[in-house]
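Subject: Sanity check before I submit

Could someone independently write out the structure tokens for this chain? I want to compare against mine line by line before I put it in a report. The sequence has 748 residues.
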Amino acid sequence: MKRLWIILGAVFILSFAILGWVGTEIFRQAPPIPKEVVTTDGTVVIAAEQVMDGQNVWQAMGGMQVGSIWGHGSYVAPDWTADYLHRECIFILNTWSSGEFGRNYDAASSEQQAVLRQRLQDMLRKNTYDAATGNIVIDPLRAKAFEDNLKHYSDVFANGNKDYAIQKNAQSDPAKLRSLTSFFFWTAWASAANRPNNTISYTSNFPSEPLVANVPTSSAIVWTGVSVIMLIAGLGAMVWFYAGWRKEAEDRDTPDTDPLIGETLTPSQRATVKYFIVVSLLFLLQIVMGIVTAHYGVEGGGFYGIPLADYLPYVVSRTWHTQLGIFWIATAWLAAGLFISPYICGKEPKFQKLGVDVLFIALLIVVLGSMGGQWMSVMHKLGSGDLWFWFGHQGYEYVDLGRVWQAALFVGLLLWMFLIGRAAIPALKREGTNKSLIWLFMGTTAGIALFYAPGLFWGMRSHLTVVEYWRWWVVHLWVEGFFEVFATVVIAYLFARLKVIKAEHAAQASLLSGAIYLSGGIIGTLHHLYFAGTPTIALAFGSVFSALEIVPLVFVGYEAFEQIRHSKVRPWLAQYKWVVYFFVAVAFWNLVGAGIFGFMINPPIALYYMQGLNTTAVHAHGALYGVYGTLGLALLLFCMRAMQPERKWNTKLLGFAFWAINIGMMMEILFSLLPIGLLQTYQSVAYGYWSARSPEFMQTTLMQNLRWMRLFGDTIFAIGAAAFVWFALKLMLTKGEFKSVEESNPEA
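---
Independent answer below. Compare away.
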């Protein structure tokens, strides 16, 4: 056991040391934000602070929920970096071609086109940033291209665009539209201009754009090969190690009856029921928002003819869809932690129920307040000041909530950590308890609470590259890292509580799984940052270590299937059949959604062409819901089972819900998201990233039909989810089913 703790500690320290070092290089080498952009004849095109002003305009109206920047964001509207860059290129080429050959670029001969392309590449790839003045100097023709793009974007955001699912008056202020276009210019400039003393751009030549020779770098190709080799080597090592470790595992000695029968609930445990009720309702609301969001991709500004976008724009529905997923999953996990902690302690600490109730109210305030603020920000209801940042929409995917709500959520997580700690710490002083398992439970709890803090490390006017670095600390490390390890520990503890496995072996398995996962997961955070204005060291470390993330996921299902086999040994374990099945589904989606679909897009050469396409949505749905959402539902069921171990469940509805949810999710991916993503990938490789995201391609009959194919999977999933919620609410709202310690033992 001591050796495993040393290994886990070493992995943690070394991984964060590397992640921190790479972070310093990211901060140091981020693409410069110009003081001004001026032409060679001295005309000011972009004034001081206008780029940052534009970034703030973009954030306030939804940011990453309205298209994407550098591939990060939503999928219906274009990637504004790629779109601006391509429009600028075409404008310049057409101007040259018309002036010299009397016809547009497309009509010129191949020899003429080649000459013009080379001239264009010489112009755009030359880095004209002057560190002494802080200015970028551009050719007057690029200034004319800027004005032409400004006219286009003013029309898009002021008048709306159904192909982009952008509502009318998304932004109509001329000054703000100019700032917004300035921000788009800067992101496009950074994507094409070579780094100082280098032949690749600040974004490692992303996005793909043949007109300016934006093609995969040598590093992307080489490190892709290395990542595949690391994956194969990791799988081989894991098979060898796991086989040896399994030989040392002891036989199980399952009790004849359910150990939870006869247990009485503490007041704080009973108080968690309302958390699970909210989980169920938020789960349904997220599905509704997902249906609306998906339909906007087909109809743009309406919902089956209803002008819903006038009141609920795409940017709001998608914001709520993604954010609600985080909220209900996190709430389920928080509630499970609160429910389990008295088991560990063996008694109820004073005022524990009060703390649980206060935390519940705080969570409701954060959920409702943040959602309302986001709607008000997008609908221009927060005035012209900075309220959009503090109470509205920050514009960064998965951390969209205003800073006040973000800080309140962090305080709530600290309260949650305190409540679990005060219940668990006394158990460390008691003889006969497995202290390793308790320390793991407390450590992962602290990880979840504390590692949300990086979401507070950027400000309203922080550099986009710096924001992306810290944002992925939250989205990857918090959600995909510490939640993953917390889940492992919770599952292990629950099975130990049922005495299906011994606590010692549960602790060993959790330590081993945590060490293996974090060895790839911490540094693997960098695979999200290949093309976000970061140096190539982020690409090197991210590609290698993210390949290792899939290794433990290949074997995570083994123990779950073992539980199914073992559940047939004792009749009472049949009561946990569907709880175990949901755990198995977690293992399945861990392998498929997080592992296979994740590795499909993670190698640098793959992500170069796939980032921000529907292949990303495949991974997002398979991982976020498939793994973490399914686990949230599994934890809900276990807690309900533990609250009423003697109650016989009619599981026909639950069984239907299980298969409908999982089959519906798989149909949604295989029949719609994946084929759309693969067709987009072909388009990106063949013509450029801009084309894969363009309305000319996305609004073709084939792509529209594939969007409609989601209807079948989405419907089955929604019916299954409704059945699950109905089953769960019936359990939770049936009066007289839950007995607290106080009710069963008045002297307690």
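---
OP: Matches mine. For the report I'm noting this point. The beta strands are 36-39, 44-46, 68-69, 72-73, 129-130, 135-138.
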